[in-house]
Amino acid sequence: MSPPLAAILSLSQLMVESNAGTMFELVKELHDGAEELKRHTTNPISLNAGCELFIAFVTLFPHESDSFAELKTELVKQGQKYAKEAISYRNKIAELMLDFIKDDSVILTHSYSRVVMRALLHAHKTKRISVYVTEARPRGLGVKTHEVLTAVGIPCTVVLDSAVAYVMDKVDFVLVGSEAVVESGGLINAVGSNQMAIIAKAAHKPFYALAESYKFHRLFPLSQYDLPTHNPSILSFPSLPPRPFVTPPTTSGVSPPIAKSGIDESLNVTPTSSSERSMSAEMTAKNPDVDYTRPDLISLVFSDVGILTPEAISQYLVAMFAG
């Protein structure tokens, strides 16, 4: 289950156990519950989208019942109903995507995305497709995509993250999933998506994003560093001991060296074998999990509410949260 749906069901259960007697108290409890959920994940972006959607639904729900307890019961019922129906959204997206996948298409995708997998498996029923998938380090989830596609008979090759530009001329389009689609029409997804979009744009290849509508998020990042997941430790330099400065005695007519670097060029460093060269946990922790792709790099967003341009995402979000 996607984090946004899990969040909606969690907040629905919170309402079942709530002792709130007014809408103000209930909404406060939901906000507190959402904050508690966020504290238990390192990447709260898609979870935020689900919490935001459910709290807006509760706030905007027409209060026609005379009993607040009855209203809470109805809200819980509607939340659970939505989560159940939303499971089918990936099938709707896969059906919309089908018309854009021609026979013998060569597709480049990134990491592992459940909605992208649904679209590819659906297309495989009636069309011949081949797929390149990025390795998606450090978690290597592209290998999982390769295993699933290969098992069902779809030709698939894993591509190094650093070889995206190399392979771009061989593909018909790029297809990625999403952590969230934000108010600007931009995309937040597994790190590496942004560079794929930049390269696709330069190569004049369509860049398509698949996103369930419960991942539409009222967030407006202007750069990578505006994302909720960013913190000062990401891509920071390590603290090193100060370099020693040595000033030797001077002799007449000879200027002393300003400083000594402290590096012994004769120092022999034992190289690691190629099988041992991998990023340490500390190195990995200094890298981002997700990145932001600007709307001008995205061709179309396929969602359960239709096929949208990035500009249309903003309009949809405004309408959705305006009631």
From TrEMBL:
Its main location: cytoplasm. Belongs to the eIF-2B alpha/beta/delta subunits family. This is Translation initiation factor eIF2B subunit alpha. The keyword Protein biosynthesis applies. It comes from Somion occarium. Keywords: Cytoplasm, Initiation factor, Protein biosynthesis. It is found in: Cytoplasm, Cytosol. The keyword Cytoplasm applies. InterPro entries: eIF2B_alpha/beta/delta, elF-2B_alpha_N, IF-2B-related, IF_2B-like_C, NagB/RpiA_transferase-like. Component of the translation initiation factor 2B (eIF2B) complex which is a heterodecamer of two sets of five different subunits: alpha, beta, gamma, delta and epsilon. Subunits alpha, beta and delta comprise a regulatory subcomplex and subunits epsilon and gamma comprise a catalytic subcomplex. Within the complex, the hexameric regulatory complex resides at the center, with the two heterodimeric catalytic subcomplexes bound on opposite sides. It comes from the Eukaryota. Coiled coil: none annotated. It holds the Pfam family IF-2B.
